[in-house]
């Protein structure tokens, strides 16, 4: 319930994240921070935080915000949101947070993140746990979003409660982004140099690795690996690259080895020339 100091990265392609980042930084820093034991990977907490969820909803869901605030008749938009979205969703969010925490324990999320941190070459700051903030979304839309913002992961949660295993894979994907973007400058330059002759592979690497480690390897531990005929990632280039490097990433992670020059050479060789058509 006490998020650590956030280090924000981005909220999605083409989205100007800076206004929301400034708001959420101020809100979360104001809540305080709790130190955690030194570890290569972060401690993860699942939380339903009204203030953060409200700011995300009102700034990142403009259509739903307009619908929620329409006809307020003297009520502020914030009061309208609390009455129509937050208060009815609170019991469900508590159940979902508890279920995700239990799933993370069963699926050994701590081990998954430790494996990922070792693979990426990252030591996560011991005083900065990652907080997964659940944002209530009304109804049961087929498409939802999640985003990594350093020590904060924001994940939209609909009224469905039978898709938590799938959401777990999405959350693990975003946690991988948090780790990848926490690499030191020296580690980042090292990996960039290994992929200097393959800029396309480097451009796809962050999302492809998050897809493999999060949506596949972490999801497997939760019994929720995506089907082979499903799209693992919406972008066909990333989807194809993730599928191509899955065996390589699995071998490297299971061997408890870091991403190195040998891995980079093999990944570049495996990069598909064009996206693999999906049925």
Short summary:
By secondary structure, this protein is of the alpha/beta class. It has ten helices and four strands; from the N terminus they run αβααααβββααααα.
Structure description:
This protein has helices spanning 18-31, 50-60, 62-69, 77-106, 109-120, 164-180, 185-194, 199-221, 236-254, 261-270; strands at 44-47, 130-136, 146-149, 152-157. The chain is an alpha/beta fold. The protein has a 4-stranded mixed sheet with strand order 1-2-4-3, with helices on both faces. Helix 1 runs antiparallel to helix 2 (50-60), helix 5 (109-120) runs parallel beside helix 6 and helix 6 crosses helix 8 (199-221). Mean pLDDT is 82; it is low at 1-39.
Instruction: For the largest sheet, list the strands in their spatial order.
Output: 1-2-4-3
Question: Given the structure, what is the number of helices?
Answer: 10
Largest sheet: 4 strands, mixed
Give the CA-based shape: elongated
Q: What's the number of extended β-strand segments?
A: 4
Q: For the residues shown, what is the average pLDDT?
A: 82
| CA(first)-CA(last) distance | 43 Å
> What Rg, in angstroms, do the CA atoms define?
19 Å
Instruction: Encode the helix/strand succession as letters.
Output: HEHHHHEEEHHHHH
Helix content: 55-70%
Q: What percentage of amino acids are in beta strands?
A: 5-15%
Give the low-confidence spans: 1-39
Which class of secondary structure composition applies to the elements?
Answer: alpha/beta
């Amino acid at each position: 319930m006490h998020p650590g100091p956030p280090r924000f990265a981005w909220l999605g392609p083409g989205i100007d994240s800076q206004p929301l980042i400034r708001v959420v930084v101020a809100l979360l820093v104001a809540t305080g921070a709790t130190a955690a034991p030194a570890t290569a990977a972060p401690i993860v907490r699942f939380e339903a935080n009204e203030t953060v969820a409200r700011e995300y909803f009102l700034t990142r869901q403009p259509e739903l915000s307009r619908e929620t605030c329409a006809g307020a008749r003297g009520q502020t938009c914030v009061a309208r949101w609390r009455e129509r979205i937050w208060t009815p969703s609170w019991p469900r969010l508590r159940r979902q947070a508890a279920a995700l925490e239990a799933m993370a324990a069963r699926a050994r999320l701590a081990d998954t993140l430790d494996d990922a941190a070792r693979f990426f070459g990252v030591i996560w700051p011991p005083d900065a746990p990652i907080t997964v903030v659940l944002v209530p979304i009304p109804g049961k839309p087929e498409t939802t979003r999640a985003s990594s913002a350093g020590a904060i992961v924001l994940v939209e949660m609909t009224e469905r409660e039978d898709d938590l295993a799938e959401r777990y894979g999405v959350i693990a994907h975003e946690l991988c982004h948090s780790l990848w973007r926490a690499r030191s400058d020296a580690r980042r330059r090292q990996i960039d140099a290994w992929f200097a002759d393959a800029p396309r592979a480097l451009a796809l690497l962050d999302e492809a690795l998050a897809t493999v480690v999060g949506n596949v390897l972490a999801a497997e531990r939760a019994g929720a690996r995506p089907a082979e005929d499903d799209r693992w990632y919406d972008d066909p280039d990333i989807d194809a690259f993730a599928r191509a490097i899955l065996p390589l990433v699995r071998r490297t992670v299971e061997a408890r080895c870091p991403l190195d020059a040998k891995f980079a050479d093999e990944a570049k060789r495996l990069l598909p020339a064009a996206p693999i058509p999906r049925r």
